[in-house]
């Protein structure tokens, strides 16, 4: 599970950890670090496996994060404590007093609780590509609303989407929902304990299956995520990027060896991920705090170079020796000799798709306003946004943001250049003429209080970047939808109803921009369109 919760800016740079006489230094053997090497160089020896298990579990028990899916009571701690923090005399004295207080106090009943396998499943799905501190609140709300597999299986899709809204990667929610239904049907509501059985459940892959089997059921099963790959690449000095198939295969093999003779496989797996998330981070690894620094080849290499060993000990490249390292990129990992962060290599990023999107936030006063409010609603400022309704559309069940609600949304083109407002307005007119009755759109109708360009936003998804031009159209009264537009996928929603259905991060950004009180309104009503081919222009005269 991706566990990036600590701020890189708050962590020391790797160079700050390097000293001429480093207490972390491992005895250097120049024969261990030739660029020319065989794959056996990366294999663990039995004493190394034992040392990693022992040291890592001790560190995890002392410094792990306190989280609800681990059975911990609140308050939750989403950043790990570190081993090398200097303590003042006052801190030590305060610690001794706390120890005495702990000894003298009555037994606490607010201890760690037993975690259901279902909770482990939910947490692992939520934590994929998402920060720990973000997940905590979502997890608590989810378990409160859907406490069991049966409760989730019986839920309707809108309730599931609403609770997931804002967490991103919405396919996870759909697959979790489908998986719950499958478990009810095939396993009578009880999650199976073996990896093979877990892999039959929709949405559960090798990583999640390994996590559930080891953490929830105590089986000696490995798991590998991005944090584990990074830890393995550094401990064994593997010159490949995290998406390299050979490195991934090696990481599964190494993780299997580590967990193979461990009495606490679930804790060890979590410790590996915790290490990658809090100590062995992407940019600023805290090597002096690392519990497995004694067996880390990347650190040994770094210390060797820092001690100014002769560069001649690094032999020239042989392109067909090690089957794990990526020799096509050898210059990248061979030239950064003084950095632990040279392992693993940076993954080559594919250029994300870019799209220009036209967004129309269409609003109107709610029908149930009191008579005085209705009478005063001639100006947009006469009613509060809490008294408005917004025209929202529901996205299709498959694809990006599946099943989520959004403002009127039209793709204009590929690329990243947002066109002028006049052009975007024409797009909106075309869309609205297919949704609203003609009376609301005619030039003679003075049904609009305000129409304005509110600005631009960029919203980034995992594989696509949206460049959005946003306008706000506010009617004096709610226009009727044409018969063909009336469906469950197109609704006028109040702010309370929007919250009930759940707001995505993108919708929240747009709404904040529209309702931003610091933005001045340049015009109440924009001039009418001049498109001669259009009988009914949206903008009134």
TrEMBL record:
One of its GO terms (biological process) is base-excision repair. InterPro entries: DNA_glycosylase, Endonuclease-III-like_CS2, HhH-GPD_domain, HhH_base_excis_C, HhH_motif, MIG/MutY, MutY_C, NUDIX_hydrolase-like_dom_sf. Binds 1 [4Fe-4S] cluster. Coiled coil: none annotated. Its cofactor is [4Fe-4S] cluster. It is an enzyme of class 3 (hydrolase). Its EC number is 3.2.2.31. Residues 1-10, 523-541 have a biased composition (Polar residues). Residues 126-278 form the HhH-GPD domain. Keywords: 4Fe-4S, DNA damage, DNA repair, Glycosidase, Hydrolase, Iron, Iron-sulfur, Metal-binding. PROSITE patterns: ENDONUCLEASE_III_2 (PS01155). It catalyses: Hydrolyzes free adenine bases from 7,8-dihydro-8-oxoguanine:adenine mismatched double-stranded DNA, leaving an apurinic site. Residues 1-29, 71-95, 520-541 are annotated as: Disordered. One of its GO terms (molecular function) is oxidized purine DNA binding. One of its GO terms (cellular component) is nucleus. Adenine glycosylase active on G-A mispairs. Belongs to the Nth/MutY family. This is Adenine DNA glycosylase. It comes from Peronospora destructor.
């Amino acid at each position: 599970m991706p566990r990036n919760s600590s701020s890189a800016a708050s962590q020391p740079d790797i160079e700050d950890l390097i000293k001429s006489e480093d207490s972390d230094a491992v005895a250097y053997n120049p024969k261990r670090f030739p660029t020319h090497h065989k794959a056996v160089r990366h294999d663990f020896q039995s004493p190394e496996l034992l040392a990693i298990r022992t040291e890592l579990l001790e560190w995890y028990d002392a410094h792990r994060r306190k989280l609800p899916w681990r059975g911990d009571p609140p308050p939750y701690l989403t950043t790990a404590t570190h081993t090398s923090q200097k303590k003042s005399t006052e801190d030590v004295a305060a610690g001794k007093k706390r120890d005495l207080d702990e000894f003298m106090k009555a037994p606490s009943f607010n201890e760690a609780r037993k975690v259901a396998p279902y909770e482990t499943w939910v947490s692992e799905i939520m934590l994929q590509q998402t920060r720990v501190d973000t997940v905590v609140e979502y997890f608590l709300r989810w378990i409160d609303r859907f406490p069991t597999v049966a409760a989730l299986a019986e839920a309707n899709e809108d309730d599931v989407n609403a609770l997931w809204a804002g967490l991103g990667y919405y396919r996870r929610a759909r697959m979790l929902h489908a998986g719950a239904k499958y478990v009810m049907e095939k396993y009578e509501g009880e999650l199976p304990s073996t990896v093979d059985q877990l892999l039959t459940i929709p949405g559960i892959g090798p990583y999640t299956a390994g996590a559930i089997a080891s953490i929830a059921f105590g089986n000696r099963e490995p798991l590998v995520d991005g944090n584990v790959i990074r830890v393995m690449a550094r401990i064994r000095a593997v010159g490949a990027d995290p998406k390299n198939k050979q490195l991934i295969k090696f990481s599964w093999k190494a993780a299997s060896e580590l967990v193979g003779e461990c009495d606490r496989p679930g804790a060890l797996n979590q410790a590996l991920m915790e290490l990658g998330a809090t100590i062995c981070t992407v940019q600023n690894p805290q090597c002096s705090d690392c519990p497995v620094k004694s067996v880390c080849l990347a650190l040994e290499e770094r210390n060797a170079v820092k001690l100014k060993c002769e560069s001649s000990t690094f032999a020239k490249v042989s392109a067909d020796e090690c089957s794990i390292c990526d020799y096509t990129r050898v210059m990248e990992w061979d030239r950064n000799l003084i950095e632990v962060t040279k392992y693993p290599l940076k993954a080559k990023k594919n250029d994300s798709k870019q799209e220009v999107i036209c967004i129309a936030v269409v609003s109107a006063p709610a029908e149930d306003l009191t008579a005085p409010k209705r009478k005063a609603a001639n100006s947009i400022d006469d009613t509060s946004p809490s008294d408005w309704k917004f025209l929202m559309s529901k996205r299709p069940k498959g694809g990006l943001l599946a099943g989520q609600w959004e403002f009127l949304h039209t793709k204009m083109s590929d690329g990243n250049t947002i066109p002028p407002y006049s052009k975007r307005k024409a797009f909106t007119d075309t869309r609205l003429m297919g949704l609203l009755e003609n009376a609301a759109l005619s030039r003679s109708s003075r049904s609009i209080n305000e129409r304005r360009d509110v600005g631009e936003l960029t919203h980034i998804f995992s594989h696509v970047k949206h460049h959005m031009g946003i306008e706000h159209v506010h009617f004096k009264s709610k226009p009727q939808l044409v018969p063909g537009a009336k469906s469950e996928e197109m609704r006028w929603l109040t702010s309370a109803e929007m919250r009930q259905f759940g707001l995505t991060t993108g919708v929240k950004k747009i709404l904040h921009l529209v309702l931003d009180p610091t933005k001045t309104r340049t015009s109440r009503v924009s001039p009418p369109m001049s498109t001669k081919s259009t009988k009914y222009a949206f903008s009134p005269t």
